[in-house]
Amino acid sequence: MRCAIYCRLSKEDTNKRQPESESIQNQKNLLTRYALDRDWEIFGSYCDEDYSGADAARPEFNRMLHDAENRRFGVILCKSQSRFTRDMELVERYIHGLFPRWGVRFIAVADNADTEIRGNKKARQINGLVNEWYLEDLSENVRMVLDHKRRSGQYLGGIPLYGYKKDPADRHRLIIDEPAASVVRTIFDRFLRGCGPQRIAGMLNAAGIVNPTSYKKPDALCSSLWSRATVSRMLRNEMYAGVLVQGRQTRESYKSKRTVAVPPQNWVRIEGAHAAIISPDVYAAAQRLLRARSLPSPM
After folding, report:
1. Which of 108, 142, 104 lies closest to 123 in space, CA to CA?
2. Among 119, 147, 120, which residue's Cα sits nearest to residue 247?
3. HEC states along 79-109?
4. Residue 15 — pLDDT band, cuts 50, 70, 90?
5. How high is the pLDDT of residue 119?
6. Has this prediction a pTM greater than 0.70?
7. In the chain, which ranges are E strands?
8. How far, CA to CA in Å, does 155 sit from each of 146, 171, 242?
């Protein structure tokens, strides 16, 4: 009998001390012994690190499925069904659907799950439901923790807004990045003096000042020129007035990486969470001017 070994380490797992984690190695050792005790030939090992059990885009997971479809082995060994997947949809699609069609037996050693054992299907389905509930509960708990951190004024984003940088002593706090902040002040000042976004962008380009993307990522393969749209977005961003705005997007569901926009009224806004680059009065004046410029001309 030829078998394949599948191991997975989720992003939530910790204690990674080696390039190939102890958890992955322990899974491999357990499954290798299981196979050798039965005189099975091991076709290969497939290991995904830092991937959730709900992620169907795992590279090694999909390479194994491709090999299974091509009948390169007859058994898939996992430590537990949850290591294969925590998504009930994938359990039904592969373990109960395609694997029997491909002539592949699935065994989860710790769960005593084996598709060759009659009457074992209900136990696998119950296990699948428990794993799915675990994912749902975990997602909700993470969402609650993140929401609490946002509402307490902690910055949870990646690369900070142009004009700010992360505090070296506290990565959840923004501090002013003075070289960029001086450009932000210039943009607001010139706008209030009557220059439009297009003209401001031209002035910045003529002065040789790189745009926010190139400033934050000097090695990025993109234009370093300012545009009207970039200047307009900055003029409308109240974070420059010291208001931390987060939660503008959320995941479609705990099973999906796709994000959807959150209505502005549901954004998390915390005033005074970081130092302002421009005063609230300057920001308010800029908003009034933007609204006035957007009004249709009288006939």
Report:
1. 108
2. 147
3. CCHHHHCCCHHHHHHHHHHHHHHHCCEEEEC
4. very low
5. 64
6. no
7. 2-9, 41-49, 75-78, 105-108, 113-114, 164-167, 170-176, 243-246, 249-251, 259-261, 268-271
8. 10, 8, 12
CA distances (Å), origin 73, targets 36, 81, 106, 139: 15, 19, 11, 35
Q: For tokens 């234009």, name the residue.
A: 223
Rounded percentage of the chain residues whose pLDDT exceeds 90: 62
Q: How far apart are CA 217 and CA 159, in angstroms?
A: 9
Taking each helix axis from N to C end, the angle separating 228-235 and 197-206, rounded to the nearest 10 degrees, works out to: 110
Give the separation between CA 23 and CA 15, rounded to whole angstroms. Answer: 9
Q: What distance in Å separates the CA atoms of residue 292 and residue 251, rounded to the nearest whole number? A: 35
**Average pLDDT of the chain, as a whole number:** 88
Average pLDDT over residues 7-35: 75
Longest dimension (CA), the chain: 89
Quote the pLDDT of residue 5: 96
Residue type, 206: A
Q: What digits encode the pLDDT tens for the residues 174-230?
A: 999 999 999 999 999 999 999 999 999 999 999 999 999 999 988 777 788 999 999
Q: Quick count: other Cβ atoms within 10 Å of Cβ 292?
A: 8
The amino acid that residue 284 corresponds to is A
Q: Alpha carbon of 61 to those of 6, 58, 81, 94, 257: distances in Å?
A: 8, 5, 13, 12, 17
| pLDDT(36) > 60 | yes
